[in-house]
Amino acid sequence: MKTLKLLTGRALFALAVLALLLYTIFPFYIAVATSFGAGTGEHVYTPAYFDLRNYLSVFKEQPFFHNILNSALVSFATVAISLLIAVTASYALARVHFRGRTLLLLTVLGVSMFPQVAVLSGMFELIRMLGLYNSLGSLILSYTVFSLPFSVWILTTFMRGIPKDLEEAAIVDGATPWQIITRIFMPVLWPALVTTGLLAFIGAWNEFMFAITFILSNENRTVPVAISMISGDSQYELPWGPVMAASVVVTVPLIALVLIFQRKIVEGLTAGAVKG
Amino acid sequence: MSSIEFVKLDKVYKGLNSFHAVKGVDLSINDGEFVVFVGPSGCGKSTLLRMIAGLEDISGGDLYFGKTRVNAMAPKERGIGMVFQSYALYPHMSVYDNMAFGLTLEKKSSQTIDQKVREVAGILQLEHLLERKPKELSGGQRQRVAIGRAIVRQPNVFLFDEPLSNLDASLRVQMRIEITKLHQKLKTTSIYVTHDQIEAMTMADKIVVLNQGQIMQVGSPLEIYNNPANTFVAGFMGSPTMNFVQVNAQGSQMTPTPCDNPRSFEVPFQHQGPATLGIRPEHIELSPLPGALAVECQISVVEHLGNETMLYLTSELCEQPLVVAVAGEKSPQIGEDLTIYLPAERCHLFDANGEAVTRLETSKPN
Hints:
Number of helices of chain B: 9
CATH topology of chain A: MetI-like fold
Strand content of chain B: 25-35%
Distance between the termini of chain A: 47 Å
Largest interface: A-B, 18 and 25 residues
Shape of chain A: globular
Number of domains of chain B: 2
Strand order of the largest sheet of chain B: 6-7-8-3-9-10
Radius of gyration of chain A: 24 Å
Strand content of chain A: under 5%
CATH class of chain A: Mainly Alpha
CATH topology of the largest domain in chain B: Rossmann fold
Helix content of chain B: 10-25%
Order of helices and strands of chain B: EEEHEEHEHHHEHEHEEHHEEEEEEE
Number of helices of chain A: 12
CATH class of the largest domain in chain B: Alpha Beta
CATH architecture of the largest domain in chain B: 3-Layer(aba) Sandwich
Oligomer: heterodimer
Structural class of chain A: mainly alpha
Number of strands of chain A: 0
């Protein structure tokens, strides 16, 4: 009786795991299968043949390599700028006592509640005023604006978790605030920096709405927009094969990044919870 | 090396509930002295230490290192080394880098740094640990690294903020001795904050007892123990704490006030009016002594500590139990009747405000 109960329990658990796996992996499976084994206008469950035709066509028919470079440039610049600002801002918010600190933090949080659409027209005006329209600078600026509130919040929380003694030990050792940030806090916060940086990177890499609004010319486009612009032989046809091939190409770097830093992400999400 | 002079030092935390943490502290610390600040939590001892370090602003008064007024100086300009309760080692740096950090910031040549770090590592027996990270060290080793980091820059003043309270009991005793030895070797002015009176008694040249932001008494450990200046010091220093009996004084005749059938006895003090008589548990005798006050008691609690035994006694002398320390071999039973003897020359007398009354010179020496 007892063993029967145990077996049913295990079977049910296995079933649940299987269902979960199926529904999380299925879309990706379709994408990969289609990219290797379908022509235009169809997508497939099992590839009828296996070739790289779709991959070649992606790079042949549009400046896709250029688009990837654009995306990489925009994403890395966004990460670098927002981390620099977020680290210095969170040092002030977590460590320096000043009037209105809580209000400022709440404002930062409040700003991040706005959907992109709400600020799109305002952002467009700003970009035009700065003369950044149709340049990658427009995207770096807008992505930084959108990733900052989140980064500042995360880093402020982590920075608060650093014992005050550590900072004071550095002060007694003669460190300036900048030296405290760069030589003590940043190494200690490394997992948190990786986590926030990666999230900012993914956000910038996948962003679509600003990218399609602020960029006009083909060679300045970033990857998500470029993929949406891939067209078939007629306007009634969706070129699933090339679209999926392009999607796979741009997802691979993200997966690689996440795998490389995965241990750090987990550390980052739990750091501060346990005493070092 | 430097002496330190406090002149009417004040610290007020401003805010909705402004808090006066340090109230007009005057104190002078001689060059090379080992001074211990001791007091209960919230007495301002850590605040005072942090004011010396420059980690807290000074709200009022002056602080001098030697002849220099340091109120407005940054911590690094004051030439201090500090050891924190939590060690506060830089977790991402090796032991070597932890100790070298301050010197690196001073832009010393790597040769000088290496020489100094290895010298200090030798003193503290850390040579074999130099490449390790703090997380790979035990508590005692971490504490030694923290001390090494403080002494490697050869500061004028060492500050210790409850450095041993995170260690277990046996290690604490060992580190206590090591710090004392180190001080004898380096002869640097040191200020040590603790709430542990044993640390205070064993390590200090001079003890400063603090309460509610004010100095209660300054003196050598034995002065503090033998001649407490007030009931606070008398009750705080010594374990178990001193027994207090409310009395009414008429000259040198004391009458315990809560007694049903009052009888007076003589002590070597001159005072009039209500007062508090104090006697330490270890000074109460179980065998008759000439000139000692005999008190009939009943044992209510027995605590065996091994080397000695604490008896908590109920008597008509006072409402709270009298504590007596007796030799560990004795094993009295709860409920037993007992006569104890309070030697008059071991008594302390405090006036109605809790200030000590000066002892009269008696023919019998202590």
